[in-house]
Amino acid sequence: MVLRHxxxxxxxNERLRSFVARTPATRGVINxxxxxxxxxxxxxxxxxxxxxxxxxxxxxxxENTADPxxxxxxxxxxxxLLELIYDAGLASWAEVxxxxxxxxxxxxxxxxxxxxxxxxxxxxxxxxAGTTVTVDMxxxxxxxxxxxxxxxxxxxxxxxxxxxQSSLRRTEGDAAAMAGPGVRVRLCKGAYAPxxxxxxxxxRDVDRAFVRSxxxxxxxxxxxxxxxxDPRLVAIAGTLxxxxxxxxxxxxxxxxxxxxxxxxxxxxxxxxxxRVYVPYGREWYGYLVRRVAERPANLLFAARAVASR
Length: 309
Ligand code: FDA
Fold this sequence. Notes:
It contains 13 helices and 8 strands. By secondary structure, it is an alpha/beta fold.
């Protein structure tokens, strides 16, 4: 826990960021978890995954935009990305993931409608390209507004996906309320530490809550997107799918780029649908530090890279 907090604090540090970018060994870690800095890098990663039978959801890194112009710029980045996906003939292999605060949610009283407008533009462009969008979930302070934005946009774009975090107590209710035929819900544990009142602090409680929400999603007609690398939860998802008569096209496993790649290929080899979260962009540093904070063993990967030089 201490290491996790230290690492998260490190994600704010500019000098560390440029050190990490310049050091060959850590550059190897960046290349494993981040597709690159440009949209074309992400599309290249998607093509490589598609060759392995693995789907993608692309995230343009960055959050908490400073002003509406920046939020508009990030929205345009997504529109360009969707055009590139379409032009590369990869629309059936890749969708996009969007953080609401990256497209305006954090910008005061107007933030919610600005984010809704920008996500609607991204949905329009995704529909034209023949693919979908999933709205990421950020820390708990943004959950109510994010759910409102998704509920409004789903009237027009019923295929719009939404993330729920099992670390939050409210999520079981949200999963039950949301679970309707075909509704795309990505269930994850949650990357942010919730407060004691609103969240589960013990990892075992987070896992148990994950299973309860997952059961709700599988038992309803929802389309569960099971976002975890946890071998136990992956196995439980498989069991729930079988028990509820779900075929390979009726749910999917999701993991992040660079995490358990052999497992991603194994599941895809069994015929399951596997989707990998492919992040790209200049704001890679905070994302990378969070991945290491979640799993300090990723540091070993860097150490091995140094040792083998
Ligand atoms: P956890 O970190 O609890 O680890 C459990 C076990 O899984 C470990 O003991 C190990 O066995 C195995 N494991 C985990 N990571 C591994 C790795 N890298 N390599 C090998 N084994 C590993 N969060 C959020 O708050 N909002 C969001 O929108 C999203 N979106 C999202 C999309 C996708 C596709 C994924 C996969 C994840 C997210 N997350 C997220 C992040 C999520 O909430 C969570 O922080 C991470 O997935 C880590 O939790 P796990 O469930 O993977 O297991």
